[in-house]
């Protein structure tokens, strides 16, 4: 009996300590990924950094959708993670957030896994794609979304 | 009179000349609805509180019992009754309403047998001509007093029992036609150290066995003397335990001779778990169902053994064991009935 | 503990208890666990639906949707308790309907209904938390103890 308990305890510790980094980037591109590259005619609302972030993140197999928008100062990213990977959600978020911050040192990077932010960003992306958005109103929207993501219970 | 150590034999034949049996909605769906005089559709009986509803049940059963006999309220000397709630207030308020000199008693679910035994004794010794004896209980008031709020979604174990909503009342007279109370055995407290208030049947079985054994020893008769031995509210577990224990003690009681009020009143499939309980359980089933059987001549002699667990919510929380009691009263069909 | 208590009893009572226990119907623990798992899971499923609804149609994030979801579930519990359905679910599901927030709501609401006949101050007011009170007391107390342990561990540099 005692031996069994020890064994189970050992397995638990091993499995929880085993993967120090929650995610590993894979070589082959993820095909079922939900993302759109946005090209805007207006230079002021360029989504270059957001597209870079999407390209970098799309190397992770576990990510199912990426929504990202950037202004000249800020970059906000929402990722959706595969259902059974959600057990490690906090770890994944931490790792990806760190990675993105290193990738864009001169931007304020905000990475979240929240569904609501993904929905809001998707709407914003649609608008940007149709080119009907001025720089000012985009910045306003982004600020609103960032505030929402920081709201706590 | 006194025979043996704790048994009275009534040679003057105190007679139950009429009964009043009232029930609630859950009892109406049970297996013996035709044995009730009044059945209510509403748990509240249109009153402000469940306690008032219980009082109403008791009042109605007294009125029915009086109405069915030709006796006026003023002719009745005493009202001997009790119930479970706090300081037996529903019964005391009933006594106020009907205005008959009142003796309040308490022995939980054994109250029905205790009041019947006392009434028979008083009548037998010439202390009174007519006595109303009865008891009442209400599912919601008992739940509130002893368990949880009615609508609380706690899971009850399969040993727990369902308190009967109802009231049963018997008018005992010096003379008249009807079933005769022939003897009574007053039980003593039996405490087997059981502390689980959700297994009262198991706790009370020991008391029932003790009283039944004493009754047969004191009266020097055999169990086959009775057509039925009716226990109060032992439920499935208590019935099995007591029957096995009686067999172990060498009393030969047949399976079909040993019935329980708590298993008679409800149908299979009603969510009552181990069976029914409550003071009204034995009162309602005996005064309704079994006395009707006596009157129809289906049975001739029965022994009512009402069992009670005399704990309080306080004693349970202070981890005291449940003191149990059982009183036995034998009822036989009168000379003019077949 | 129980054995210690039993030893004080006279042998007659011990024999009787053993005799009685042989005939006692036991709680079907495994079946109850399964029912609790299914019903509890179903309640959580409804909670998830409500939460998702709030995320999609209102201005709540996954984080902030928790509060309105809880409130909605308690509101539903209130109706079920008042109509006398929740206690039946409870008898069937046991812990499955007691552990989610709906169980806590039911404990408060059922007490409030029960003691209404004794007035609003001394009846409802003082008895409303009769069943739920211990949850609050020991919830707060154990949170305090855990926080204390954590503080000490951090101070000593263990974590």
Automatic annotation (TrEMBL), chain A:
Segments for region (Disordered): 129-153
Identify the InterPro entries for this entry. Answer: Spore_lipoprot_YhcN/YlaJ-like
Signal: present as a keyword of the record? yes
Signal is among the record's keywords: yes
Q: What protein does this entry describe?
A: Sporulation protein
Q: Where is the composition biased (Basic and acidic residues)?
A: 136-153
Task: Report any Pfam family annotated for this entry.
Answer: Spore_YhcN_YlaJ
Hey, what's the signal peptide range on this chain? 1-22
Q: Which UniProt keywords apply?
A: Signal
TrEMBL record, chain B:
User: What InterPro entries does the entry give?
Assistant: SpoVAD, SpoVAD_sf, Thiolase-like
- What Pfam families does the database record attribute to this sequence? SpoVAD (PF07451)
Which molecular function term from Gene Ontology is one that the record holds?
acyltransferase activity
Q: Under which name does UniProt file this protein? A: Stage V sporulation protein AD
Source organism per UniProt: Oceanobacillus jordanicus
TrEMBL record, chain C:
From the record, what ranges are coiled-coil? none
Entry's transmembrane regions: 36-57, 69-86, 93-115, 135-153
Q: Per UniProt, which keywords does this protein have?
A: Membrane, Transmembrane, Transmembrane helix
Q: Which NCBIfam families match?
A: spore_V_AC
PANTHER family on file = STAGE V SPORULATION PROTEIN AC, STAGE V SPORULATION PROTEIN AC-RELATED
**Protein name as annotated:** Stage V sporulation protein AC
Lineage, highest ranks first: Bacteria, Bacillati, Bacillota, Bacilli, Bacillales
**Gene of origin?**
spoVAC
């Amino acid at each position: 009996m005692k031996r069994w308990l020890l064994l189970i305890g050992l397995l638990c510790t091993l499995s929880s300590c085993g993967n120090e980094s929650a995610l590993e980037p894979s070589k082959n591109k993820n095909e079922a990924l939900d993302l759109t590259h946005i090209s805007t005619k207006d230079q002021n609302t360029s989504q270059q950094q957001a597209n870079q972030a999407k390209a970098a993140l799309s190397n992770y197999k576990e990510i199912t959708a990426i929504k990202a928008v950037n202004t000249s100062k800020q970059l906000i990213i929402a990722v959706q993670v595969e259902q059974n990977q959600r057990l490690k959600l906090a770890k994944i978020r931490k790792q990806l957030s760190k990675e993105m911050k290193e990738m864009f040192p001169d931007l304020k990077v905000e990475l979240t896994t929240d569904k609501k932010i993904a929905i809001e960003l998707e709407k914003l992306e649609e608008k940007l794609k149709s080119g009907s958005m001025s720089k000012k109103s985009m910045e306003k929207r982004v600020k609103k979304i960032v505030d929402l993501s920081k709201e706590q219970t | 009179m006194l025979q043996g150590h704790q048994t009275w034999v009534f040679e003057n034949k105190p007679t139950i000349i009429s009964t009043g049996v009232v029930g609630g909605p859950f009892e109406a769906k049970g297996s013996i609805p035709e044995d009730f005089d009044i059945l209510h559709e509403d748990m509240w009986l249109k009153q402000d509180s469940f306690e008032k509803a219980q009082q109403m049940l008791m009042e109605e059963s007294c009125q029915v019992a009086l109405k069915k006999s030709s006796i006026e309220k003023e002719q009745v000397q005493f009202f001997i009754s009790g119930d479970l709630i706090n300081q037996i207030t529903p019964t005391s308020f009933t006594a106020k309403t009907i205005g008959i000199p009142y003796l309040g008693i308490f022995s939980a679910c054994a109250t029905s047998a205790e009041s019947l035994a006392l009434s028979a004794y008083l009548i037998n010794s010439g202390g009174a001509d007519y006595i109303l004896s009865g008891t009442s209980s209400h599912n919601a008031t008992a739940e509130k007093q002893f368990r949880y709020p009615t609508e609380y979604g706690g899971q009850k174990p399969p040993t727990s029992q369902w308190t009967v909503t109802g009231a049963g009342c018997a008018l005992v007279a010096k003379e008249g036609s009807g079933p005769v109370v022939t003897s009574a055995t007053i039980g003593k407290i039996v405490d087997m150290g059981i502390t689980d208030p959700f297994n009262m049947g198991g706790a009370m079985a020991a008391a029932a066995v003790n009283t039944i054994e004493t009754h047969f020893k004191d009266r020097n008769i055999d169990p086959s003397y009775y057509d039925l031995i009716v226990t109060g509210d032992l439920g499935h577990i208590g019935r099995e335990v007591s029957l096995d224990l009686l067999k172990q003690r060498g009393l030969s009681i047949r399976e079909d001779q040993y019935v329980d009020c708590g298993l008679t009143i409800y149908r299979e499939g009603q969510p009552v778990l181990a069976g029914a309980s409550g003071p009204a359980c034995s009162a309602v089933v005996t005064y309704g169902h079994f006395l009707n059987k006596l009157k129809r001549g289906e049975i001739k002699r029965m022994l009512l053994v009402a069992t009670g667990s005399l704990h309080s919510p306080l004693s349970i929380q202070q981890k005291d064991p449940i003191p149990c009691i059982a009183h036995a009263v034998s009822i036989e069909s009168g000379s003019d009935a077949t | 503990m129980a054995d210690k208590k039993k030893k004080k009893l006279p042998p007659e009572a011990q024999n009787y208890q053993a005799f009685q226990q042989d005939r006692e119907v036991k709680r079907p623990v495994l079946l109850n666990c399964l029912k609790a798992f299914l019903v509890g899971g179903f309640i959580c499923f409804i909670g998830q639906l409500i939460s998702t609804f709030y995320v999609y149609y209102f201005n709540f994030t996954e984080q902030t949707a928790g509060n309105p979801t809880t409130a909605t579930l308690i509101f539903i519990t209130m109706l079920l308790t008042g109509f006398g359905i929740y206690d039946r679910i409870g008898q069937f599901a046991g812990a499955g309907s007691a552990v989610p927030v709906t169980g806590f709501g039911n404990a408060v609401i059922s007490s409030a209904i029960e003691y209404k006949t004794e007035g609003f101050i001394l009846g409802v007011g003082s008895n409303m938390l009769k069943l739920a009170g211990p949850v609050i007391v020991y919830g707060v107390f154990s949170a305090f103890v855990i926080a204390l342990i954590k503080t000490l561990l951090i101070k000593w540099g263990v974590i």
